[in-house]
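Team,

Forwarding the record for the chain on the shared tracking sheet. I've put the sequence and predicted structure together so nobody has to dig through attachments.
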Amino acid sequence: MITLKRNGIEQTLYSNSTYLVLNESVQVMSDIWEYMPVAYSINERGGIDGQALYGDAIATIDVSEDAYLRHRDFVYSTNLEYLTHKWETEAQDPAEKGRVVKVVRGKTSRGTQGKVVAVIQRPYSMGYRSSNEPKLAIALNDEMTTYTAKNGKQYPTHKNIVWVWARNCVVVSTESAPMENLKQQASQIAEQSVAKIKKQASEYWMANGKKHWNANGPIVNEKLAA
């Protein structure tokens, strides 16, 4: 926790949530930086806050298991939301082999719908505006033929396809997000984050073993922090 006085009133912040104090460079004015103790605590939401110890502020290392659990839940929910949004965004990208897309823009093939069977990169536009963009081969049906390469090898390929810029297509249908898999990923990230700050707290104790800090550094005489 961090205790300090504001307008003559003593306040307590981050009770049972402070786990680490580090000497760091802190901006005290627009062009002035100073090294001073910074206390790291788990806030009410579960995120991490850093509080520079100015004036008579005192930081007490008192992190509890409940604070670690709060941090785990926060990291889990934040990453699950991010991973779900990322999956849903990527699922709408037509430049993915196997997806069913529909041509909704462009000069040719508008209204065509089919499965993407190949994706290549080609220059779009001309001159200084040119940039490589994905172009899709869309199969109009399942009819297959054989393609003979220059080396004589033969490969099966779709007989009826159209080539369309990915920018002119939209995904027709997408699968539901694999929530169990995404939850597992979010859980792993949360557990790793908790393990990281627990390791930081453990290494802090091994390095100095001081429970109380103020603006001048660790308080040697514990009675001064009472």
